[in-house]
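STRUCTURE REQUEST FORM
Protein name: DUF881 domain-containing protein
Source organism: Streptomyces drozdowiczii
Requested output: C-alpha coordinates
Priority: standard
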Amino acid sequence: MSNDDFKQEFTGRQRLIAGLWPPRVTRAQLIVALLLFGLGLGLAIQVRSNSDSNALRGARQEDLVRILDEVDDRTQRLEDEKQRLDAQRTELENSSDQAEEARKQTVEKERQLGVLAGTVAAHGPGITMTVNDPGGAVRPDMLLDALQELRAAGAEAVEVNGVRVVANTYFSGDAGAVKVDGRKITAPYVFKVIGKPQDLEPALNIPGGVVQTLEKEQATVHVLRADDIVVDALRPAERPDYARSSGQ
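Status: completed
Returned output:
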Protein backbone atom coordinates (compact mmCIF):
# COMPACT_ATOMS: atom_id res chain seq x y z
CA MET A 1 0.00 0.00 0.00
CA SER A 2 1.42 3.36 -0.98
CA ASN A 3 1.71 6.33 1.35
CA ASP A 4 -1.07 8.10 -0.57
CA ASP A 5 -3.41 5.13 -0.09
CA PHE A 6 -2.55 5.01 3.63
CA LYS A 7 -3.25 8.72 4.05
CA GLN A 8 -6.60 8.41 2.26
CA GLU A 9 -7.63 5.44 4.44
CA PHE A 10 -6.55 7.20 7.63
CA THR A 11 -8.40 10.34 6.63
CA GLY A 12 -11.54 8.30 5.89
CA ARG A 13 -11.38 6.76 9.36
CA GLN A 14 -11.03 10.19 10.89
CA ARG A 15 -14.12 11.37 9.02
CA LEU A 16 -16.09 8.31 10.18
CA ILE A 17 -15.12 8.85 13.81
CA ALA A 18 -15.93 12.56 13.58
CA GLY A 19 -19.39 11.70 12.23
CA LEU A 20 -20.18 9.26 15.04
CA TRP A 21 -18.76 11.11 18.04
CA PRO A 22 -19.92 12.96 20.00
CA PRO A 23 -23.48 11.52 19.71
CA ARG A 24 -26.18 14.06 18.91
CA VAL A 25 -29.19 13.82 21.23
CA THR A 26 -32.32 15.78 20.40
CA ARG A 27 -34.71 17.30 22.95
CA ALA A 28 -37.37 14.76 22.00
CA GLN A 29 -35.02 11.81 22.55
CA LEU A 30 -33.96 13.19 25.93
CA ILE A 31 -37.56 13.63 27.14
CA VAL A 32 -38.49 10.15 25.90
CA ALA A 33 -35.54 8.70 27.82
CA LEU A 34 -36.67 10.49 30.99
CA LEU A 35 -40.23 9.19 30.58
CA LEU A 36 -39.02 5.62 30.15
CA PHE A 37 -36.71 6.01 33.15
CA GLY A 38 -39.70 7.15 35.22
CA LEU A 39 -41.66 4.08 34.12
CA GLY A 40 -38.80 1.76 35.06
CA LEU A 41 -38.45 3.40 38.48
CA GLY A 42 -42.20 3.06 39.05
CA LEU A 43 -42.05 -0.63 38.18
CA ALA A 44 -39.20 -1.21 40.63
CA ILE A 45 -41.02 0.56 43.47
CA GLN A 46 -44.46 -0.95 42.90
CA VAL A 47 -43.55 -4.56 42.29
CA ARG A 48 -43.31 -6.24 45.71
CA SER A 49 -44.63 -9.37 47.39
CA ASN A 50 -47.78 -8.87 49.42
CA SER A 51 -48.64 -12.37 50.56
CA ASP A 52 -47.47 -14.63 53.34
CA SER A 53 -46.30 -18.04 52.11
CA ASN A 54 -47.63 -19.91 55.14
CA ALA A 55 -51.03 -18.26 54.77
CA LEU A 56 -51.15 -19.06 51.06
CA ARG A 57 -50.47 -22.74 51.65
CA GLY A 58 -53.56 -22.94 53.83
CA ALA A 59 -55.71 -20.55 51.78
CA ARG A 60 -58.94 -21.61 50.18
CA GLN A 61 -59.26 -21.89 46.42
CA GLU A 62 -61.45 -18.80 46.16
CA ASP A 63 -58.86 -16.79 48.14
CA LEU A 64 -56.11 -17.90 45.78
CA VAL A 65 -58.24 -16.93 42.79
CA ARG A 66 -58.80 -13.49 44.31
CA ILE A 67 -55.06 -13.03 44.90
CA LEU A 68 -54.36 -14.05 41.30
CA ASP A 69 -56.95 -11.54 40.08
CA GLU A 70 -55.23 -8.84 42.12
CA VAL A 71 -51.86 -9.66 40.53
CA ASP A 72 -53.48 -9.53 37.09
CA ASP A 73 -54.98 -6.14 37.93
CA ARG A 74 -51.57 -4.79 38.96
CA THR A 75 -50.04 -6.10 35.76
CA GLN A 76 -52.77 -4.39 33.75
CA ARG A 77 -52.15 -1.08 35.56
CA LEU A 78 -48.46 -1.24 34.71
CA GLU A 79 -49.26 -2.08 31.09
CA ASP A 80 -51.67 0.86 30.92
CA GLU A 81 -48.94 3.14 32.28
CA LYS A 82 -46.51 1.85 29.66
CA GLN A 83 -49.03 2.52 26.89
CA ARG A 84 -49.62 6.03 28.23
CA LEU A 85 -45.90 6.79 28.14
CA ASP A 86 -45.61 5.32 24.65
CA ALA A 87 -48.47 7.57 23.54
CA GLN A 88 -46.71 10.60 25.04
CA ARG A 89 -43.53 9.67 23.20
CA THR A 90 -45.38 9.31 19.88
CA GLU A 91 -47.21 12.59 20.41
CA LEU A 92 -43.96 14.33 21.21
CA GLU A 93 -42.14 12.91 18.20
CA ASN A 94 -45.00 13.78 15.82
CA SER A 95 -45.76 17.22 17.18
CA SER A 96 -45.15 20.09 14.80
CA ASP A 97 -44.15 22.21 17.77
CA GLN A 98 -42.13 19.91 20.00
CA ALA A 99 -41.17 22.70 22.40
CA GLU A 100 -44.84 23.52 23.14
CA GLU A 101 -45.73 19.86 23.48
CA ALA A 102 -42.83 19.34 25.87
CA ARG A 103 -44.02 22.33 27.91
CA LYS A 104 -47.55 20.88 28.20
CA GLN A 105 -46.21 17.52 29.32
CA THR A 106 -43.93 19.25 31.84
CA VAL A 107 -46.88 21.15 33.36
CA GLU A 108 -48.88 17.93 33.65
CA LYS A 109 -45.91 16.13 35.19
CA GLU A 110 -45.50 18.98 37.68
CA ARG A 111 -49.14 18.57 38.74
CA GLN A 112 -48.69 14.82 39.19
CA LEU A 113 -45.52 15.31 41.23
CA GLY A 114 -47.34 17.88 43.38
CA VAL A 115 -49.90 15.22 44.29
CA LEU A 116 -47.16 12.72 45.13
CA ALA A 117 -45.21 15.30 47.14
CA GLY A 118 -48.35 16.34 49.03
CA THR A 119 -48.08 20.02 48.07
CA VAL A 120 -51.44 20.12 46.29
CA ALA A 121 -54.86 18.75 47.22
CA ALA A 122 -56.32 15.83 45.30
CA HIS A 123 -59.64 14.10 44.86
CA GLY A 124 -60.91 11.05 43.05
CA PRO A 125 -62.35 7.58 43.57
CA GLY A 126 -60.97 5.51 46.41
CA ILE A 127 -61.67 4.12 49.86
CA THR A 128 -61.83 5.15 53.49
CA MET A 129 -60.38 2.62 55.92
CA THR A 130 -61.22 3.11 59.60
CA VAL A 131 -59.32 1.12 62.25
CA ASN A 132 -60.89 1.09 65.71
CA ASP A 133 -58.52 0.05 68.49
CA PRO A 134 -60.46 -0.21 71.78
CA GLY A 135 -57.67 -2.15 73.49
CA GLY A 136 -54.83 0.14 72.38
CA ALA A 137 -53.01 -2.83 70.84
CA VAL A 138 -52.39 -1.54 67.29
CA ARG A 139 -48.69 -0.92 66.79
CA PRO A 140 -47.08 1.55 64.37
CA ASP A 141 -45.66 -1.24 62.21
CA MET A 142 -49.18 -2.60 61.61
CA LEU A 143 -50.33 0.74 60.23
CA LEU A 144 -47.18 0.92 58.12
CA ASP A 145 -47.99 -2.51 56.68
CA ALA A 146 -51.46 -1.23 55.80
CA LEU A 147 -49.94 1.76 54.01
CA GLN A 148 -47.52 -0.46 52.10
CA GLU A 149 -50.35 -2.73 50.93
CA LEU A 150 -52.34 0.28 49.75
CA ARG A 151 -49.34 1.66 47.86
CA ALA A 152 -48.71 -1.70 46.22
CA ALA A 153 -52.38 -1.82 45.18
CA GLY A 154 -52.09 1.51 43.37
CA ALA A 155 -52.86 4.18 45.98
CA GLU A 156 -52.03 7.59 44.48
CA ALA A 157 -52.72 9.89 47.46
CA VAL A 158 -53.15 9.01 51.13
CA GLU A 159 -54.04 10.93 54.27
CA VAL A 160 -53.99 9.44 57.78
CA ASN A 161 -55.80 11.33 60.56
CA GLY A 162 -55.11 14.64 58.87
CA VAL A 163 -51.46 13.90 58.01
CA ARG A 164 -50.57 13.77 54.32
CA VAL A 165 -48.57 10.67 53.46
CA VAL A 166 -45.54 11.19 51.20
CA ALA A 167 -42.60 9.08 50.06
CA ASN A 168 -40.62 9.49 53.30
CA THR A 169 -43.55 9.15 55.72
CA TYR A 170 -42.78 7.02 58.77
CA PHE A 171 -44.73 5.57 61.72
CA SER A 172 -43.25 5.57 65.20
CA GLY A 173 -44.28 5.36 68.86
CA ASP A 174 -45.87 2.44 70.70
CA ALA A 175 -49.11 0.49 70.64
CA GLY A 176 -51.92 2.91 71.42
CA ALA A 177 -49.57 5.90 71.09
CA VAL A 178 -48.82 6.04 67.38
CA LYS A 179 -47.07 8.91 65.62
CA VAL A 180 -47.03 9.73 61.90
CA ASP A 181 -44.00 11.75 60.84
CA GLY A 182 -43.57 12.71 64.49
CA ARG A 183 -47.19 13.87 64.93
CA LYS A 184 -49.21 11.93 67.50
CA ILE A 185 -52.49 10.45 66.27
CA THR A 186 -55.15 8.57 68.19
CA ALA A 187 -57.65 5.85 67.32
CA PRO A 188 -59.75 5.51 65.32
CA TYR A 189 -57.10 5.58 62.60
CA VAL A 190 -58.69 6.84 59.39
CA PHE A 191 -56.96 6.26 56.05
CA LYS A 192 -58.37 8.35 53.17
CA VAL A 193 -57.00 6.79 49.99
CA ILE A 194 -57.36 7.79 46.34
CA GLY A 195 -57.02 4.97 43.84
CA LYS A 196 -59.03 2.24 42.16
CA PRO A 197 -61.42 0.90 44.83
CA GLN A 198 -61.65 -2.50 43.11
CA ASP A 199 -57.89 -2.92 43.69
CA LEU A 200 -57.47 -1.23 47.07
CA GLU A 201 -60.10 -3.09 49.09
CA PRO A 202 -59.12 -6.68 48.07
CA ALA A 203 -55.47 -5.90 48.85
CA LEU A 204 -56.41 -5.33 52.49
CA ASN A 205 -58.45 -8.54 52.76
CA ILE A 206 -56.04 -11.13 51.38
CA PRO A 207 -55.48 -14.16 53.67
CA GLY A 208 -52.97 -13.26 56.37
CA GLY A 209 -53.12 -9.63 55.27
CA VAL A 210 -53.78 -6.31 56.96
CA VAL A 211 -57.35 -6.88 58.11
CA GLN A 212 -56.69 -10.33 59.60
CA THR A 213 -53.56 -9.08 61.38
CA LEU A 214 -55.40 -6.16 62.96
CA GLU A 215 -58.37 -8.30 63.96
CA LYS A 216 -56.01 -10.64 65.84
CA GLU A 217 -55.28 -7.63 68.08
CA GLN A 218 -59.03 -7.18 68.72
CA ALA A 219 -59.14 -4.16 66.42
CA THR A 220 -61.97 -3.68 63.93
CA VAL A 221 -61.51 -2.54 60.36
CA HIS A 222 -64.18 -0.94 58.18
CA VAL A 223 -63.50 -0.24 54.51
CA LEU A 224 -65.88 1.97 52.55
CA ARG A 225 -65.63 2.59 48.81
CA ALA A 226 -66.48 6.03 47.42
CA ASP A 227 -66.66 7.71 44.03
CA ASP A 228 -64.92 10.84 45.32
CA ILE A 229 -62.40 10.93 48.15
CA VAL A 230 -60.86 14.29 49.07
CA VAL A 231 -57.26 14.34 50.30
CA ASP A 232 -56.56 17.95 51.23
CA ALA A 233 -53.97 17.76 54.00
CA LEU A 234 -50.91 19.51 52.56
CA ARG A 235 -47.16 19.47 53.02
CA PRO A 236 -45.04 22.61 52.59
CA ALA A 237 -42.83 22.59 49.52
CA GLU A 238 -39.31 21.92 50.76
CA ARG A 239 -36.32 23.62 49.15
CA PRO A 240 -33.12 21.53 48.98
CA ASP A 241 -30.21 22.82 51.04
CA TYR A 242 -27.63 22.24 48.34
CA ALA A 243 -29.16 21.04 45.07
CA ARG A 244 -30.10 23.69 42.53
CA SER A 245 -31.64 23.53 39.09
CA SER A 246 -29.00 23.19 36.40
CA GLY A 247 -30.73 26.08 34.58
CA GLN A 248 -29.88 28.55 37.34
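Reviewer notes: The helical segments are 3-20, 27-46, 53-57, 61-94, 98-117, 140-152, 197-204, 210-216. The radius of gyration is 25 Å.
Form closed.
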